[in-house]
Design goal:
The structure is a homodimer.
Chain A: H1 5-21, H2 29-36, H3 40-52, E1 56-62, E2 70-75, E3 81-87, E4 91-98, E5 103-110, H4 118-134, E6 141-147, E7 151-153, E8 158-162, E9 167-170, H5 172-177, E10 184-187, H6 189-198, E11 209-214, E12 218-224, E13 227-228, H7 260-263, H8 265-275, H9 287-299, H10 303-327, E14 331-335, H11 337-357, H12 360-365, E15 367-370, H13 377-394, H14 396-399
Parallel strand pairs in A: 3-6, 6-10, 11-14, 14-15
Antiparallel strand pairs in A: 1-2, 3-4, 4-5, 7-8, 8-9, 11-12, 12-13
Helix pairs in contact in A: 2-3, 6-13, 8-9, 8-10, 9-10, 9-11, 10-11
């Protein structure tokens, strides 16, 4: 909790950048002070510094009825390019963003599910990034963010453990790094999604919330009063591996009865097989096809699909109620590829279960939402991480100045 | 996340006070700067202010081999008295602390379990506080902290909901307040215990940890990187009402399968009754006597007691593993009256279950501890809350000075 002047200054810089990002049309220094709670002098000094290295610029000046025109500040899209890389089991998706975090172009390459060796996956990821950066060869490449499933050692740039490929301590950034001049930053999709959510609106940026990711795996990104919760070893958020049914179904983590074993896509398939083994909704072990068929069958009111939806909604509701009781958050946001297919139907049916199982005080205070279906919140999240890394690197010069005069950044 | 200069200064004041509290023998300004990470100038200015209003003083001066003697600073025990009040279902326990948070005297009065009406409980609480403050009539009463079970509206000073008495929105501080000149502050025992833990050592003060309270009710106080997690409506930490067994035992919260329904004292009694209905360990519905008899029977190796302990340890282990996976904490500390009787035996047997069910990365990073058996961590916790309130009130004059020169507190 001890905050040095340098840390506070750094944190306030990001408060200002987030506020600018949430107001793409431009915002005056005075409005920035109002919305951030920082003093006008602090905002003004931070803006001057950020303009000096080019991340923000004056979009235009608004002429008031009387007095001087007011400069409208924006994150300058022309300052350079940020790359966000979403590495999944079956694909690598790369998005380019301008420096105001607007998505520009994207590249997606398939990854063969049998190519599990780190060298093969890394080769494919490198290829996708190179294709994508070549599109913006005229611009300055600021930095690259990479998301990889599983547990990530952010500082070491390594994949500590990835279930899907059975990777252990793969030095990912080192393996990738030689090909690029820009610095690389690593995270997992859960934290990337939560970062994207934190930056998505002015309201969100100070909240305590949980972004749920419903997919093959299940997990959560947790933000506490506007800051990503990393935990001691950057593995916070493993909501999929909290117990839902003591001694229940075997989970791929080695434990039993985990949330993921029920509401992860393979868990939903298992429930469908248990309830309706002959169902035409089942497409063998193909998760994507089966979940899509389930979503279509729900929409057409097929009884067996509604059966499954009811069971899964109940399980989801219980697991969400636990989160609400434990963390008393402002919001729980449901996302991920299963949610993109089934989210509104799932959440609608989960709500009564949440209300039955959660305590009145926290459940009346929380809002439940289905994540907006924006392009790729994982790649956006790691692009934000890359932007943070970039800002930290250019403002490193100020970081060791604690005893020096503060250039007014603090008051 | 936006931090104004006033908020930062306030936060740094508490960083210094916590550091002084963790070093009762006295500490120099230079050492304070080292341990807090704050600059010497910030520490020096904060210390000067705190000395001006008398909370800290120079204990003595250490003479170095060469040079000037170094002042050793301490929280001044003579500055005044803090009162911590622990209101439970069957008693009210009041501790007096000096301003360095050393316990002095205490008063405990029984509360008749049938006297559930707020007026009756408040009357008993007021009486206990008056008895205790009368002992220190010669000293200045700084402030009073009150802990009450259930959900608490800290700002409104009200008990929002207390299961045990079926209270709803009882304006507790208003009912108590007339009798005392000092300000009163309200919290629940879970957060009080976590506050006491946060202040217990220099190591703890920056950690992410969970203090479990095992008693009739079950809950957790959560600290995130050195700050108490309150949540949106100050009800974070209801770990007892997270699901352990979907659709399991009825819980007094109205839900089913909650952690509390298994490892709360009534849940342990129920397990004992289910496994060994004729057991001599059972003392009807008397929780205290039965848990004490169970602890004694465990120590003497009675098979039926070991049976029960094994089941409860397994349930506790699962529920703790969920916390470890979700929050990736530095420490989980087991406390509460059930833990005081059974804690080491329970934790020892729970550990293998935690290791089986938690993910390797977070479980290898966390330390599990049984809370030290110190006098009354609840009353200490609310006395700390009272101290925080006192410091905030005396430094309120500085809070509105953001645009003014900062008196050097920040650099």
């Amino acid at each position: 909790m001890a905050r040095t002047a340098a840390e506070i200054r750094r944190s306030n810089v990001f408060v200002v950048i987030r506020a600018l990002h949430a107001r793409k049309a431009g915002v005056s220094r005075r409005e920035l002070a109002d919305v951030t709670g920082l003093s006008s002098a602090t905002v003004s000094t931070i803006c001057t510094e950020l303009m000096e290295f080019g991340l923000i610029s004056e979009a235009r000046r608004l002429r008031a009825a009387a007095g001087r025109p007011t400069a409208q500040l924006i994150l300058d899209p022309n300052h350079g390019v940020l790359i966000g890389v979403d590495v999944a089991e079956t694909y690598v998706h790369v998005d380019s963003f301008d420096a105001s975090l607007t998505a520009m172009t994207s590249t997606e390459l398939a990854i063969d599910v049998h190519d599990r060796a780190p060298e093969l996956v890394v080769c494919r990821v490198r290829e996708a990034i190179l294709v994508e950066t070549a599109r913006h060869a005229d611009s300055r490449l600021l930095s690259i963010g990479v998301s990889i499933p599983g547990q990530v050692d952010q500082k070491g740039g390594a994949s500590v453990f990835a279930h899907n490929w059975d990777w252990h301590n793969v030095p990912l950034l080192q393996m990738l790094g030689d090909a690029f001049e820009a610095p690389l930053y690593l995270e997992n999709p859960l934290k990337a999604i939560a970062l994207a959510e934190l930056w998505s609106s002015a309201d969100r940026s100070n909240q305590t919330f949980v972004s749920l990711n419903l997919g093959t795996g299940v997990g959560a990104g947790i933000a506490i009063e506007g800051a990503l919760l990393r935990g001691r070893t950057n593995s916070a958020g493993e909501w999929g591996h909290t117990t839902l049914v003591a001694d229940g179904r075997a989970c791929r983590c080695g434990s039993r009865g985990c949330v993921e074993a029920y509401i992860g896509a393979p868990g939903i398939l298992q429930t469908l097989r248990e309830l309706h083994p002959e169902s035409r909704i089942l497409h063998g072990d193909d998760q994507t096809q089966t979940i899509e068929a389930l979503a279509a069958a729900v929409r057409s009111g097929t009884p067996e699909a509604l059966d499954v939806l009811e069971v899964v909604s109940h399980q989801l509701g219980l697991a969400m109620a636990s989160l609400v009781n434990l963390l008393n958050p402002d919001a729980v946001i449901v996302g991920g590829w299963v949610s993109r297919r089934l989210g509104p139907d799932l959440l609608e049916r989960a709500l009564p279960h949440i209300r039955t199982h959660a305590l009145p005080t926290p459940v009346n205070a929380v809002s439940f939402e289905v994540a907006s279906d924006r392009a790729n919140s994982v790649s956006l999240g790691v692009a934000i991480l890359a932007l943070e890394g970039y800002v930290n690197s250019v403002s490193d010069g100020y970081a060791n100045e604690e005893v020096q005069p503060l250039r007014g950044w603090l008051h």
